[in-house]
From TrEMBL:
Top-level taxon of origin: Bacteria
Signal peptide: 1-20
Span of domain Polysaccharide lyase family 8 C-terminal: 708-773
Domain Polysaccharide lyase family 8 central: 434-693
Name the UniProt record assigns to this protein: Polysaccharide lyase 8 family protein
Any one GO MF annotation of this record: lyase activity
SUPFAM superfamilies membership: Chondroitin AC/alginate lyase (SSF48230), Galactose mutarotase-like (SSF74650), Hyaluronate lyase-like, C-terminal domain (SSF49863)
InterPro entries: Chondroitin_lyas, Gal_mutarotase_sf_dom, GH-type_carb-bd, Lyase_8, Lyase_8-like_C, Lyase_8_alpha_N, Lyase_8_C, Lyase_8_central_dom
C-alpha cells in the first residue's frame, strides 16, 4: 500500500574509510564484481540462484502464510485494490508528469527546496507504480493478474525511464529520491512484474539504476553512505543484482554492509551503550533506526541460504541491538518520540485521502514486525525471546491495535498476526529497570505500570532536528523534555495530534523562555546544539540520577536540571535559572493532552479546580496536585503553581510543509512554575507520580520525611530517600552533599540493598576527567567488585574511591559493589 510518509535526508560530505581495508574504493568495488574480493565469483551463481532470490524478495514484499479471505487481510487487500484502481484511473502520462498532481519536471533544476519537491514527486510516481504492482501481484485485490493494469504499469515505467530516470539525466533536488526512494520502488516493481517485463525493458531500467547508484555509492563509509542510508543503498545494489542476475552487484551489496555492524564512538551508527544516531547529532532509533532494522532484516532474509549469505561475525552486534537499542524505546506497541527526530512532525500528510495520522504507535509497529523477521535468521533462543517480546507489545497496545494499523504492509501484518495467534508463545511483560544512553543524551526509566523517557541536548546532540520543512517548531524537545506513559492509561498521550496542537514553548519537563523563535531556529539537520558538555547521569540497581546543564536555544537562559528516577516517582530539581532577554522563564511541570473533550478533573491540595475552558489560576503555597486518570504531583515545601486549561488548535502543516492544512483541536491541562522575567538564580522542586491516585498523592505530600533534598544549588543537586536506600547527587563542580564528596564534576547514584551491600554508580558526563575521587561517609567492610581502573581505601567511617581515566567511557556509569560495615 502507498505509504504517505517518506523518509528524506540531506547530502552531508565528510571524511570516511575505504570499504575494503588496504584497497582503494574503486578497487574494492571491482574486486567484489569479479569475485576476487570477499564475495563469490560470478561463475559460482546459477540462474536458479537468481530465481530463488526473486521469489524470496517477492514473498518478503507481499507476505506469506495468510489467507486473503480472512481478516484483517481481506479488507487490507481490498483497500490495496481500491488504491491501485484510483491510481490507474488518474494516471495521465504527459511531458513532465505521470500523474497531474505529481509533476517531476523541474524548470530550474538545482538543490533548492523547490527542486526537492520535484524530485520528491519523481519518487512518488515510482511508489505509486509499486502500489499498482502490488495490487497486480497480491491475491484478493480485485486487480490480481489484471492485464490492463500490467499494460499500464509497463507504460508508466517506460514513461519515467524515457522522460526522467535514465542514464542520460542529471539528478536535481534531494539525492535520496534518486539513489534510494525511486530505485527501491522501481526494483520492487521489477521483481513483482518480472514475468511481464521484456529483457530489453529490464536492461534499460537497470542502466538508469547503475547511473544513479554506481558501485562508488558504497565505496567509502562517509557522507550519505552511513548507517541507515548505507543499508538502503545496499538494498538497491542487491536488488539490482537480483533483477539483472549480476553476482558481483549482490556480493558488493553484502560486503558493503560490513562497516554498519561495528560500534561507533561518534557520528552515525550504533554505540556500545545502545544509542542509534544519524545525521551525526540526532537520536534516531525510531526513524532512521527503523529503516536500519527493516533494511537489514530484509537483506539477511533475502540472502540467507544463497551464495551471498551475510556471515560477517559482527552481524551479531546488530542482532544484539534488538534488546540493547530498540526494545528500551518500545512501550506497549509505541516507539518513544524522543528518538524519532523530525519524524514526529509528519502526522497527517497533505493529500492523504484516508487522513491516517503517523504517530508513535505507527512507528513502533513496523519495528516490531522487523524484529520478528530478523529473528528468523537469529539463534533459536533469540527468535523465541523476541517473539515473546513482540506478542507482549502487540497485546498491550490497546490505543492503536497492530492488526488495524493502516500503514503496515500485508507482509508485516502477516508476521504480527502469526505471533499473536501462536499459542506456544508467552507474551513478555514490560520490564522494570533503567537505561541511560549517553551516546545520544537519552534516558529511559520503567516501573510496573508506567515508563518515562528524558530527552536532553549537548554539544554532542542537537536540541532538535528540522529539515525539508519538517519539525520546524521542535525547538525545546531536547531541553529536558520528560515524556511518560501508563500501562492501561495515557498510552496515546503523544499520539493524538499532540505535536501540531501543543504549545511548543511548554513541553513537559522543560525549562524554556517565552521568547518567540522563528521556524527552524538554530539551523537545519541538527545544527542547533548548545555549547555544553555536562549532560548525562549514573545508575545503580535500576535507580538513577540524570542531569543537564541547560543553555536555552537562541536565548541567554542558563539552568541546572536534575532528575532522580525511583520506584513510583521521578524527583525533579532545578537551580541557577538565569536569563537576561526580557522574557518570562517557565518550568513546565507537565502538559497533558486531554483529547478532544478534556474532562479530566484537577485537584490541588484537596480543592477541586474548575473544568471549564479556558481557565487559568495562580495557586500560591501549593503542596500537591492531582490530575485524574494521569498522575500526582508533589511540591516539597510548597510552590506557587500556575495551572491552565486551553483548547488549542493547530494543523500538521504548521510544523511540516508536507502536512495536512486541516485544523485540529485538542484540550490541554498545563502545570508550570513561572520564574518571572529575567530571573537570577531561580529554582524549583517537584515529584512526578505517574498513575497515582489523589489519596496516594496527598499521603506522599504529607510524608515530609520520605524525601530529603540534600542540595539544590547552581553547584550541587542531590536527594536521598532512606526508605529505598537511595542517594543521588549531581556534582556540577565537585563538593559535598549529604554523605558524598566528589573532588570534580560527577554524577553519583548509591543504592543500599537490604542484604547489607551497596552499589555505587559514578560517571563523568563531561568525559574530561583523568581521575575522580569520591568519598562516601559510610562504614564499609569490604569492596566486593570494582572497575579495573578503580582503587579503594576504607577507614572506620568512610570509603574513598578513586576512578581512573573516565574520558574513554563515553559517559557510561562505572560501578563498585561494597559490603557495608
Amino acid at each position: 500500500m502507498t505509504h504517505p510518509w517518506t523518509r528524506r535526508s540531506l547530502l552531508i560530505t565528510a571524511g570516511g574509510v575505504s570499504l575494503a581495508a588496504g584497497l582503494p574504493a574503486a578497487t574494492a568495488a571491482a574486486a567484489a564484481r569479479t569475485g576476487t574480493g570477499t564475495g563469490p565469483a560470478r561463475s559460482a551463481a546459477s540462474a536458479a540462484d537468481f530465481a530463488a532470490l526473486r521469489t524470496t524478495w517477492r514473498e518478503l514484499t507481499l507476505g506469506t502464510g495468510f489467507s486473503p479471505t480472512a481478516q484483517p487481510f481481506k479488507d487490507r487487500l481490498a483497500t490495496l485494490g481500491t488504491d491501485a484502481g484510483r491510481l490507474l484511473a488518474s494516471m495521465e502520462p504527459a511531458d513532465g508528469s505521470l500523474w497531474p498532481d505529481a509533476v517531476y519536471a523541474d524548470p530550474d533544476p538545482n538543490t533548492d527546496p523547490e527542486s526537492f519537491g520535484y524530485s520528491e514527486r519523481l519518487q512518488t510516481s515510482y511508489v505509486r507504480l509499486r502500489t499498482m504492482a502490488q495490487a497486480y501481484a497480491q491475491p484478493g485485490t480485485g486487480l490480481t493478474g489484471d492485464q490492463a493494469l500490467a499494460t499500464a504499469l509497463r507504460t508508466g515505467l517506460d514513461h519515467l525511464y524515457e522522460q526522467v530516470y535514465n542514464e542520460r539525466t542529471t539528478r536535481y533536488g534531494n539525492w535520496y529520491n534518486w539513489q534510494i526512494g525511486a530505485p527501491q520502488a522501481l526494483l520492487d516493481s521489477c521483481v513483482l512484474l518480472y514475468d511481464q517485463l521484456a529483457t530489453d525493458r529490464i536492461t534499460r531500467y537497470l542502466a538508469a539504476v547503475d547511473h544513479f547508484v554506481p558501485d562508488s555509492a558504497v565505496g567509502s563509509y562517509t557522507g550519505t553512505s552511513t548507517g541507515a542510508n548505507r543499508v538502503d543503498l545496499c538494498r538497491v545494489l542487491a536488488l539490482r543484482g537480483v533483477v539483472g542476475a549480476d553476482a558481483g552487484k549482490i556480493a558488493l551489496a553484502r560486503d558493503a554492509l560490513t562497516p554498519v555492524f561495528p560500534y561507533v564512538t561518534s557520528g552515525d551508527g550504533i554505540y556500545a551503550d545502545g544509542s542509534i544516531v544519524q545525521h551525526t547529532y540526532v537520536p534516531y532509533t525510531g526513524s532512521y533506526g527503523a529503516v536500519l532494522i527493516d533494511g537489514l532484516s530484509r537483506l539477511f532474509a533475502l540472502l540467507s541460504g544463497s551464495p551471498w549469505a551475510v556471515v560477517d561475525p559482527k552481524r551479531q552486534q546488530f542482532l544484539d541491538s534488538v534488546e540493547h537499542s530498540y526494545a528500551p524505546f518500545l512501550f506497549n506497541g509505541l516507539m518513544m518520540d524522543g528518538v524519532s527526530g523530525r519524524a514526529i512532525s509528519r502526522g497527517v500528510a497533505a493529500g492523504d485521502p484516508a487522513g491516517t495520522e503517523a504517530n508513535d504507535h505507527l512507528r513502533g509497529h513496523p519495528v516490531i514486525a522487523s524484529i520478528l523477521l530478523l529473528g528468523e535468521g537469529a539463534s533459536a533462543a533469540e527468535r523465541d525471546r523476541w517473539r515473546g517480546l513482540a506478542k507482549g507489545w502487540c497485546q498491550r497496545d490497546y490505543y492503536s491495535p497492530v492488526l488495524s494499523d493502516p500503514s503496515l504492509s500485508v507482509g508485516a501484518l502477516a508476521r504480527l498476526k502469526n505471533v499473536l495467534d501462536d499459542t506456544s508463545v508467552t507474551p513478555v511483560p514490560e520490564p522494570s529497570g533503567h537505561r541511560q544512553f549517553p551516546g545520544m543524551d537519552r534516558v529511559v526509566h520503567r516501573r510496573p505500570g508506567w515508563a518515562a523517557a528524558l530527552s536532553m541536548a549537548s554539544r554532542r546532540i542537537t536540541y532538535y532536528e528540522n529539515g525539508n520543512g519538517e519539525n520546524v517548531r521542535g525547538w525545546h524537545t531536547g531541553s529536558g523534555m520528560l515524556s511518560w506513559w501508563g500501562d492501561t492509561f495515557a498510552n496515546g498521550q503523544y499520539s493524538d495530534s499532540f505535536w501540531p496542537t501543543v504549545d511548543p514553548t511548554r513541553l513537559p519537563g522543560t525549562t524554556a523562555s517565552r521568547k518567540k523563535l522563528a521556524d527552524g531556529q538554530g539551523g537545519a539537520w541538527g545544527a542547533a546544539r548548545p555549547d555544553v558538555s555536562w549532560v548525562g547521569g549514573s545508575e545503580a540497581d535500576g535507580y538513577a540520577t540524570a542531569g543537564q546543564y541547560l543553555k536555552g536555544l537562541a536565548s541567554t537562559l542558563l539552568a541546572k536540571k536534575s532528575w532522580f528516577f525511583l520506584d513510583d516517582a521521578v524527583v525533579c530539581l532545578g537551580a541557577g535559572i538565569t536569563a537576561k532577554d526580557g522574557q518570562s522563564i517557565e518550568t513546565i511541570v507537565d502538559n497533558r493532552n486531554l483529547g478532544a473533550t478534556g474532562g479530566a478533573p484537577l485537584t490541588v491540595d484537596d480543592r477541586p479546580q474548575p473544568t471549564a475552558y479556558p481557565w487559568s489560576a495562580t495557586l500560591p503555597g501549593a503542596r500537591w496536585a492531582h490530575l485524574a486518570g494521569h498522575a500526582g504531583y508533589v511540591f516539597p515545601g510548597g510552590t506557587t503553581l500556575k495551572a491552565l486549561r486551553e483548547a488549542r488548535t493547530g494543523a500538521w502543516r504548521d510544523i511540516n510543509a508536507g502536512g495536512s492544512p486541516t485544523p485540529v483541536e485538542r484540550r490541554y491541562l498545563t502545570l508550570l512554575t513561572d520564574h518571572g522575567t529575567d530571573p537570577a538564580g531561580a529554582g524549583y522542586a517537584y515529584v512526578l507520580l505517574p498513575g497515582a491516585s489523589a489519596a496516594r498523592t496527598a499521603q506522599r505530600a504529607a510524608d515530609e520525611g520520605w524525601l530529603r533534598i540534600l542540595a539544590n544549588t547552581d553547584d550541587i543537586q542531590g536527594v536521598s530517600v532512606a526508605s529505598l536506600g537511595f542517594t543521588g547527587v549531581n556534582f556540577w563542580f565537585g563538593g559535598t552533599a549529604g554523605p558524598l564528596t566528589a573532588d570534580a564534576p560527577a554524577s553519583v547514584t548509591v543504592h543500599e540493598r537490604s542484604d547489607g551491600t551497596a552499589v555505587i554508580g559514578v560517571s563523568d558526563p563531561m568525559r574530561a576527567r583523568t581521575a575522580l575521587t569520591l568519598t562516601w561517609a559510610r562504614p564499609v567492610a569490604a569492596v566486593l567488585s570494582r572497575p579495573a581502573t578503580l582503587t579503594a581505601a576504607t577507614t572506620g567511617s568512610s570509603l574513598t574511591l578513586t576512578f581512573g581515566d573516565l574520558r574513554g567511557t563515553g559517559g557510561v556509569t562505572q560501578r563498585a559493589v561494597v559490603r557495608l560495615g
